[in-house]
Write a structure and sequence with these properties.
Blueprint (H helix, E strand, L loop, with lengths): L7 H13 L10 E2 L2 E2 H17 L6 H21 L3 H17 L2
Antiparallel strand pairs: 1-2
Helix pairs in contact: 1-2, 1-4, 2-3, 2-4, 3-4
C-alpha cells in the first residue's frame, strides 16, 4: 500500500468545505479572462476529487488538465478579487496548488 502524500488530509478537508460552498451568484454561464467559469469549477473539482480517490495520485492527462486550469485560476482570481466569486475561485486555486505540489 502506498502512503498518502503529506498534504492529503488538508486537501480532503478543504475539498469537503469547498463542495459545501454555494456556486457564486452572477457567474453561472459567465466568462472571465476568456475562461468559462462553470467549466473551470468542474474541471478543477474533478481533478481534486480524482486525486483524493486515488490516494493522492493523478494520471498524466489529469495532471495536464489541472496545470491548465491552475493557469486559468491565476488569471481569474485577481480579476474577481473582492467578490464572493473571487473567494470561491481562490479556494479552488489553493486546492489546485496543493494537489500539484504534492
Amino acid at each position: 500500500m502506498t502512503a498518502r502524500p503529506a498534504g492529503y488530509a488538508e486537501v480532503a478537508r478543504l475539498y469537503a468545505e469547498q463542495c459545501e460552498a454555494p456556486f457564486p451568484d452572477g457567474v453561472r454561464g459567465a466568462d472571465c479572462a476568456g475562461v468559462d467559469l462553470v467549466m473551470l469549477d468542474a474541471d478543477t473539482a474533478g481533478c481534486v476529487h480524482t486525486w483524493l480517490s486515488n490516494g493522492g495520485a493523478l494520471d498524466a492527462w489529469r495532471r495536464d488538465v489541472l496545470s491548465r486550469r491552475l493557469e486559468h485560476l491565476e488569471q481569474v482570481v485577481p480579476r474577481l478579487s473582492g467578490s464572493p466569486a473571487g473567494d470561491y475561485y481562490a479556494a479552488w486555486r489553493r486546492l489546485a496548488l496543493l494537489v500539484r505540489d504534492s
